[in-house]
Amino acid sequence: PSSIIGNPVKSLDSNKYELSQIRKFFVSSLRFKDVGGNKSTLQKLCQYVLNSQESTLYQKYNIIPSNGLMISGPGGCGKTLVAQAISGEFNLPMTQICCPELVGNLSGETENNIRKVFQTGKTQAPCILLFGDIERMRGKRDGSSKQMQQSVIAQFASCLDGVSDLKKIPKNSPVLVIGTTSNPDQIDPALRRAGR
Q1: What is the pLDDT of residue 10?
Q2: 3-state DSSP call for residue 56?
Q3: What is the Cα Rg of the chain in Å?
Q4: Of 3, 31, 99, 127, whose CA is between 20 and 30 Å from 23?
């Protein structure tokens, strides 16, 4: 796609891949009217996004807002299309992150990549961070330990909680995190719990 300004590049001196740049932010030209069917689902999404953008109510009543949503369904059903329609409908810049691109070979590399994405999102707020294939954000299967996977999930959860910290996010400048998945049962329960 034309919105991508950087791809992972292979380092010449090792076999590891590095994120060369965070993908470019763009406002989608798609709208809800471009998404066929599921009118009630789109209305719920619209209500959710409107509520998430009004941080003054959350601050007034000292409520921590939910800062993300997950869209699941079989491959090709339009999960990314719906996220792009949210971007276009609310004029929110978004970036798409393919979760397997975040996974590094070295200890701590994946966690660092996750932090970079969320830091970029905070500087672009209000915006949408779209994480595709979110269930694949674990370590590499070969040789990755359960401890490494737990560290990656803990880092993602910490960053996800950080975007809802109303003291650190400017008024009415939320970062909406959307995860898409074909296998919601493979996502760690810590990321699926209410409030995230």
Answers
A1: 33
A2: helix
A3: 17
A4: 31
Query: 65 and 58 in contact (C-beta within 8 Å)?
Result: yes
Residues across the chain: 196
pTM equals 0.79
CB-based contacts of 41: which residues, under 8 Å, 6+ apart?
none
pLDDT in tens, 14-28: 334 344 445 689 999
Q: For 24-172, where are the alpha helices, taking DSSP H only?
A: 39-53, 55-60, 79-90, 99-102, 109-124, 146-162
Question: What does the pLDDT read at residue 36?
Answer: 81
String of DSSP letters for 130-163? EEETGGG-S--TTT--HHHHHHHHHHHHHHHHHT
Q: Which residues contact 186 (CB under 8 A, 6 or more apart)?
A: 135
Alpha-carbon span 71 to 132, nearest angstrom: 10
Alpha carbon distance 177, 196 (integer Å)? 9
Contact 45, 82 (CB under 8 A): yes
83 close to 77: Cβ distance less than 8 angstroms? no
